[in-house]
TrEMBL record:
The keyword Transmembrane helix applies. InterPro entries: DUF4190. The chain crosses the membrane at residues 60-84, 96-120. Keywords: Membrane, Transmembrane, Transmembrane helix. This is DUF4190 domain-containing protein. Residues 8-21 have a biased composition (Pro residues). Pfam families: DUF4190 (PF13828). Residues 1-38 are annotated as: Disordered. It comes from Cellulomonas oligotrophica.
Length: 253
């Protein structure tokens, strides 16, 4: 304004209305900040509040621990329960529950596999009856004195054979066995074959009928598995019915 103007005079008609005074700080200087409702103190805000973290689910922890201890079925059951409880209750530990399920499934499958292997091994070593009721396949270790074989396998290692009732035509029969000492040491296949052959004999009647003797000794692999039994087989020139062990063997019709 010019010095001659009166600041208190009303504005001329049509002129702009006077502005309200700007807020001034306590020091008398304009801070440029907007006026506050409370001019006596600045506003302080407290730090943000966080809710407490949910607790860990004990079942999930137990699932992980039992899984690490190879307790497969228990870890699997606890892991599933842990997953359900963490979802329903909002507790922590879902990762541990998942790990428990994975470990539990692994150890459970491993346990089943071991059980099947043991069952098969036991089944392969369970001796047959001296005369079976029906034809069946059997492991060589299951053969006993009296077992009749439908066919004589070719030379070489033998694992499985076809066993038939002795009343049916058969090509060979186990007439005796030779048992190695449990303390015996493997001396090679030739030595094992020779030792079994020394323990096998035929009767004079069997020799006269043209029966020959075939011996089966344990192989090195079988020896490592505990096989200590050698087999003596009577092989007629043609299939027979009946048994050599009781003298009823006759040429098959």
């Amino acid at each position: 304004m010019s010095p001659s103007e009166d600041p208190t005079a009303p504005p001329p008609p049509g002129g702009p209305a006077p502005r309200a005074p700007e807020p001034v700080s306590a020091s008398g200087w304009d801070t440029g900040a907007p006026a506050l409702d409370d001019p006596y103190a600045a506003v302080h805000r407290a730090p943000g509040w966080q809710p407490p973290a949910p607790p860990h689910e004990p079942t999930a922890i137990a699932a992980l621990v039992t899984g690490l201890l190879a307790l497969g079925p228990a870890a699997l059951a606890l892991g599933v329960a842990g997953l359900v409880r963490t979802r329903r209750a909002g507790t922590r530990g879902r990762g541990m529950a998942v790990a428990g399920v994975a470990l539990g499934a692994f150890w459970t499958l491993a346990l089943v596999g071991v059980g099947v292997a043991v069952a098969l091994t036991v089944a392969q070593q369970r001796p047959l009856a001296a005369d079976v009721d029906a034809p069946r396949d059997a492991h060589v270790q299951q053969l006993v004195t009296g077992s009749c074989l439908a066919e004589l396998p070719a030379d070489g290692p033998v694992e499985r054979v076809r066993v038939v009732p002795c009343a049916e035509p058969h090509a060979a029969q186990v007439v005796s066995t030779f048992q190695f000492s449990p303390a015996a040491v493997w001396g090679g296949q030739d030595a094992a074959d020779s030792r079994v052959a020394q323990g096998c004999t035929l009767t004079d009647d069997e020799r006269a009928a043209g029966v020959t003797l075939v011996t089966w000794a344990p192989t090195e692999a079988g020896w490592r598995r505990g096989d200590r039994t050698g087999l003596c087989l009577a092989v007629p020139p043609a299939p027979v019915t009946g048994s050599f062990t009781d003298g009823t063997a006759t040429p098959a019709p």
